[in-house]
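Quick board copy: two proteins, each given as sequence then tokens.
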Amino acid sequence: MLQRLSILFVLLFISVHLLLGQTSTPEISYTGKPKEYVIAEIEVTGDLNNDPKILANLSGLRVGQTITVPGDDITAAIKKYWEYGLFSDVKVSASKVEGSNIYLNIYLQERPRLSSMNYLGLKKSEIEAVNDKVAMMRGSQVTPYLVTRAERFIKEHFVEKGFYNTEVDIVQRDDTSRVNHVILDVHVDKKEKVKVNYLGFEGNEAFTDNRLNRIMKKTNERKKLRNFFRTKKFVEEEYHNDLDAIIEKYNEEGYRDAYIVSDSIARNDDNTVDIEITLEEGSQYYFGEITWVGNSIYPGEYLSHNLRIQKGDIFNQTLLDERLFMDDDAVHNLYMNNGYLFSRIIPVDVKISNDTVDLEMRVYEAIRPPLTGLS
């Protein structure tokens, strides 16, 4: 922080000293009246790993440019270097002044480069998975942003696995075998996985709490007679998959308007969570009239017979998709197996009356392509 404040002081006051060499010109004061100079030379010095010419170009200054000292040009150049995030120290000074010509020296201390990362507290397989996400390559510059980013990625990785209390501490130490290189020691303490203590539901009438609990296979709660160590771990990704499974099951039972109103997750002191889910079930729907249009190869009665869904059956979108497209004897396969490879069937809700859904099956038979290449 002190180093940062020192650099900001340089940034604000541009305490650049003009080194006069063998001339008798007095040192220029930058608290005095601004004066224009032409940049005659830009020299970059410091502990560098990159081409000085490239580093000089990063300043935005160029030879032949007229600048005002004191003024915004030097300030802007210093600011640019800091914005790149690649340097730990930046200073701009004048090495010489000849009349209206100024010779600039830009001192840069590049941030160290990565030699290696040591993971402490993880298994080999975990290290490989974390490394893929962190993606810090050897030789890359180690910036505060990249270190913070690595910590965040590691925590997120283990949160996805159910380790919500993971602690990550990255310690930077010098690599004594290589100049301006560092080793990062990554200390990871995953803690214990968070477990589900209670899973409650509100707004459900068609499905009991126990049934909903069973649907949420990856999240269901701890029972009193169940061994504590068999309690389901709380993993956010699996939890959201279980929420989707609830809606899917409602849809299969005809509740096509069902949705999750809200859900809350409360953390307990014993490393468990209590989950409360509020549902809106909506009405239960049934299949109504099913008509076919656009079909000429097969009559509608035959297609309905193969669909095997009757008027009055509970509306089940999953079953409808399976009987139209997914099953081996699905209706669409009648066309596909007969060479109509580009045929399509599009089910459309044409009328919803109270709890009944009338469907129109729009058939696009297309043209059967000719058989070629047969001898």
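And the next:
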Amino acid sequence: MRRGPRTTAATLARWSGYGLAALPLAFAPVSVRLRVPRRWLRSPVRLERPGPLRVLAHSVLSGGSGLVGWFLALLALVALTRGLAYPVLTGDDHANSWGGPTLAGAWAVHAVLGVALLPVWLLAIAGLGAVQWRLAQRLLGRTGPPWAIPLSIALAAAGALLFIAWTRQL
């Protein structure tokens, strides 16, 4: 099979979708948590009779990962909206803005950045989806890599710190 831009974009979209699905999947029954990666990613998770503690750990860690994914999606939407609607959302002082001193230059720079960074945001959310899939393999299937658990904890903590920093600068 030939891999091209379309296949890569579709794969990125699937993994990003799975990264965003981590939050609702955290509260779903185990059968649904196993069905979604099989259908969306075409990568099944083999169930190895997880105990209640493993299911609870998966719920907490995938919920944290899902919250980080949705926060990144919010930041992407804010960046895109602010970039495209720059003249509506800012004042008259364009001399000190990126692309200034003219409104057209500032608008162009902000719009290009808002659109150009979308693939970066999607890659970050897809990366969270990949970690989420490996976490499900580890906790529900006992076949995943051992680093998935500490990495999920670190990503949730980093996401919480990023959220706190973002809310304080508003």
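Board note added afterward: The CA atoms of residues 3 and 9 lie 10 Å apart.
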